[in-house]
Design brief:
The chain has 185 residues and is an alpha+beta fold. The chain has helices spanning 23-30, 37-40, 46-62, 112-126, 142-150, 175-183; strands spanning 8-9, 13-16, 68-72, 78-85, 98-103, 132-137, 154-160, 167-174. The chain is globular.
Length: 185
């Protein structure tokens, strides 16, 4: 399943594969209580961030997809992560590829999640040959739901992440809907 994880550049952002040297910058972002509010309800420790980073890098090889370091193009500052990944935490919808994003607090509300998500979606349909991409959010995380709507995603189903786990909304975007939207401008 190995595939080359792309570096994607937009007007304001660069999405690039994570490397282990990103740990310190990523740990600083993950330490923000709001960054992991959904689903952890608080910050992630540096140890947990190191495990997260190892898992993401490993999934580049095993899944052919994985979220990427999200950096501000002008400064090179790591501001979060975004991209395509297999949603292993929700096995009932597999096989699937999810687009997701998480941004540091000062970078939210500026259209950057939409910009990063759009770049990942375009790559997924144009280059990776996907027929469908999902995006998942907790119902209380209304800003993420609005980003999904702006990107053209529609409701698919509601699910629990595990028995007794968090309820999440699964949205989807088909290749045909994406083609219609991109052809229409």
């Amino acid at each position: 399943m190995a595939r080359t994880i792309p570096t994607l550049t937009t007007e304001r952002l660069v999405l690039r594969p994570f490397v282990r040297e990103d740990l310190a910058d990523l740990a600083a972002v993950h330490a923000e209580p709001s960054f992991w509010w959904y689903p952890l309800r608080g910050p992630m420790s540096e140890t947990d961030t190191a495990e997260f980073l190892d898992r993401v890098i490993g999934r580049y090889e095993s899944d052919g997809f994985g979220v990427e370091a999200l950096t501000e193009r002008a400064s090179g500052t790591l501001i979060g992560w975004a991209g395509l990944a297999v949603p292993h935490f929700l096995p009932e919808i597999l096989p699937a590829v999810e687009v997701g994003w998480r941004l540091s607090g000062p970078y939210r509300g500026r259209g950057l999640a939409t910009e990063a998500g759009g770049a990942a979606i375009d790559w997924g349909f144009r280059e990776a040959g996907l027929d469908r991409i999902v995006s998942i959010y907790e119902p209380e995380n209304e800003p993420s739901g609005r980003v999904m709507e702006r990107l053209g995603f529609t409701y698919s189903r509601t699910a629990a992440t595990s028995p007794g786990g968090e309820t999440v909304v699964v949205t989807e975007l088909s290749r045909s809907r994406w083609v219609e939207r991109t052809a229409g401008g």
